[in-house]
Amino acid sequence: MALSNSKDLKLAVLIDADNVPYSNVKGMMEEITKFGTPTTKRIYADWTKPNSNGWKGVLLEHAITPIQQYSYTVGKNSSDSALIIDAMDLLYSGKLDGFCIVSSDSDFTRLAIRLRESGMKVIGIGEKKTPNSFIVACDRFIYIEVLDGAIQKKKSPKPTATTTSDAKKAVEKPAEKALAKIDKATIELIEATIEDIEDDDGWAFLGDVGNMIVKKKPEFDPRNYGFSKLTPMLKSLTDILEIDERESDKKGIKHVYVRLRFN
């Protein structure tokens, strides 16, 4: 569920290094390209500190410009002010369509609000501990934990002889585990959104449903619930939803519609 006309968006990516492990940068940059083209990429930290070792290769690989910000006081993230000042300078340059702010710090809440007031699209990326104030200030917020490389995948066990019943159970277990994560509030959000945009027969286009949900809840992402995309997530809710896949003008492409299933 990328932002509308995302491929044309010119984005500034501003990263608070104090809040992002360098091992997550690759997956993060790949995620950002789904929303637009990152024309400016900067990362802020005190690079004289020993814990900055390990960043060099990552920054070179992704052409991210490191911005030095000395720690003038103990216990305060000094990168915040430098990032905010640069963001405002970039805003007034008139060369961008949006910003991607990578941080889990609520100090950037006012910045996100200000950028959106100026017509900028704002995408936030941070850990699940990110305060809600910063999350809702963004057009879209993505948790680092769901990105590729952020979670180590378990190695698949060696194949052994199994019965058909055993194989079926093995396939069902991951889905059952994922379904358990879809909380009541999220289901109510999905139901309310479908009702908001349904036609006279109760059908709503899946793409419109996804976009509307993100407007209501910027951090909504099917990956948070164990699904790669919205379609399989909604297909798992067969007790409350009906899915209709309709042929489109383009061969091999189907339009998916969804409506509430009333007993």
Automatic annotation (TrEMBL):
InterPro entries hit by this protein: LOTUS-like, NYN, OST-HTH/LOTUS_dom
Domain of life: Bacteria
Pfam family, one: OST-HTH
All residue ranges annotated as the HTH OST-type domain in the record: 182-260
CDD domains: LabA_like_C, PIN_LabA-like_N_1
Gene3D superfamilies xrefs: 5'-nuclease (3.40.50.1010), LOTUS domain-like (3.30.420.610)
Gene Ontology molecular-function annotations: RNA nuclease activity
Name of the protein in its database record: NYN domain-containing protein
